[in-house]
Amino acid sequence: MESVIVLMFSQVIIKIVGLIYKIYLTNKEGFGDRGNAIYGAAFQIYALFLTVCSIGVPNAISKLVASKVAIGDNKGAYRIFKIAFALFGFLGFACSSMLFFGASCIANIYLQIPEAEITILALSPSVFLVSIASVLRGYFNGRENITVSANSQSIEQIFKALFTILTVENIASISGNNTILMAAGATIATTISNLFSVTYLYKYFIKKKKETWQEVISSKIHKKESVLKIIKNILVVSVPITLSAFLSATTKTIDALTVVRILRNLIGEEQATLQYGILNGKVDTLITLPYSFNIAFATALVPTISAAIAKKQINDAERRIKFSILVTILIGLPCSFCMSMFSKQILELLFPNATAGGEMLKYSAWTIIFVVLIQTINGALQGLGKVNVPVIAFAIGAIIKLVFNLILIPHVGVKGAILSSILSHITSFIVCLASLKKNINIKFRIDKFLLKPIIASIIMFVSSYSLHINLYNVISKKILLIISLLFGIIIYFFSIMVLKILSEEEIFMIPYGQKLYKKLKNVK
Fold it and tell me: In whole angstroms, what separates CA 469 from the centre of its chain?
């Protein structure tokens, strides 16, 4: 579980650093919500291409490698890695080429944001780089070396923030704050940072190659499989994961393809672009922050459950799934509460030069709990080998998203896109949960998994909001918001303990849980 903590902190760092450069861009003169619209629309298309050849890869490779390593077949695990490296390297190069040569068509016809063409061109090499990085991360994760993957992602995000700020500043001074060129500069920084990440992973691989090779040649258990069979095994696992990730990313791409297209006829092109910029640039950025705490559990579940199933340790798999879902609820629920109730204040704190979007964030915050639960449940389903279920769930969710976008946006504006997202995520969550309960014997107590977490979240919110009201005219609003949120977190932690949501066994499953339990026991 220590690896989960490492990955969790890595994801937190990634999100915080990402938020820093997003705050910089949004508040930068000449960029703002319009720049976010150009940058965000191009990034959503890039994300779709990225999904095809990389997003599902780490989990697929880690699952197959973990299954081989669990039975002592290190030679088979290494062979899977080599073939996957060649396969997804080629696929990544093909997708990069398609994005590069199709940039004009995508920007002008599909997005109807011509300014995004240069931004798409600047992003195109990243698809190939991330494809290579994903295979390396999957191999390391399968060997339960999650720390390397976490470090590479942290390096990538830190360099991305650094290069984004430096590049945009230089372009702004040369071009006189040209929004289009600044958006392109921000995406060039993404490509450069991905190059640094791949370099780090490759150097680590070379460093450990001798040690890995010793394990390979000393493998006592190995059943040689043909290249075609290994490719088939990889695709059998990766294609459904990729499809589920692709369909999940589609919900955001649907906004990129429909929001501006529909709203421009109602409020004009400029206002429509600004509305999409607020939704994609600020709101979506903020509601993805809690995912960083939860993605560690979802990522770690895949190889852990795969190894448990390979060893016929079903009870251990059930126990880990239940614990991860409980922790996911304890992470996601308070985030939805706080981000919804303090939406306006949060935007004023982070984006003083572009504060619009309070209402959007207020409603969008309620997608957090469902998205993080879907993350964890899908990790469990992938570990169990039920990789087709997320595909079906996200396909249904994407259809609901598209239909309700087309119905609601003309009547309630951009809020229609938010409401359709909530409905989409709820539907996907129900499908995934039903499948999980069908495939493994897990019973969820309503008081433990629902009632007590809701009570703890309400206590946290009431305490935090009461403090905010009582000190509203006493100290600075920005400082008060930070103090109120920190106070709420402390109250929430003690509420979890007082309500005894976590059992002794579950506390022990937390990294350094035994030390934590002893301290809690000392204070009764």
Answer: 33
Residue 15 resides in a domain: yes
241, part of any domain: yes
Burial of 375 from C-beta contacts in 10 A (0-12 / 13-18 / 19+) = buried
Q: Where are the alpha helices (DSSP H) in 218-313?
A: 227-267, 269-277, 284-287, 291-310
353 within domain boundaries: yes
CA distance 130 to 116: 21
| CA terminus-to-terminus distance, the chain | 26
pLDDT, residue 289, reads 78
Residue 21 or 488, more confident: 488
Residue 70 CA to chain centroid, in angstroms?
Answer: 28
Chain segment 63-74, per-residue pLDDT in tens: 788 777 777 777
Distance CA 512, CA 508 (A): 7
Q: CA-to-CA distance for 61 and 234, rounded, in angstroms?
A: 7
By residue range, what is the domain housing residue 147?
Answer: 2-211+221-444
User: In this model, does residue 247 exceed pLDDT 80?
Assistant: no
**Phi-psi region at 503: left, alpha or beta (left = phi > 0; alpha = psi -120 to 50):** beta
* Number of domains comprising the chain: 1
Percent of the chain with pLDDT over 70: 86
For residue 399, the model assigns a pLDDT of 92
Does residue 496 belong to any structural domain of this protein? no
Confidence band of 6 (pLDDT split at 50, 70, 90)? low
Residue pair 149/14 in contact by the 8 Å Cβ criterion: no
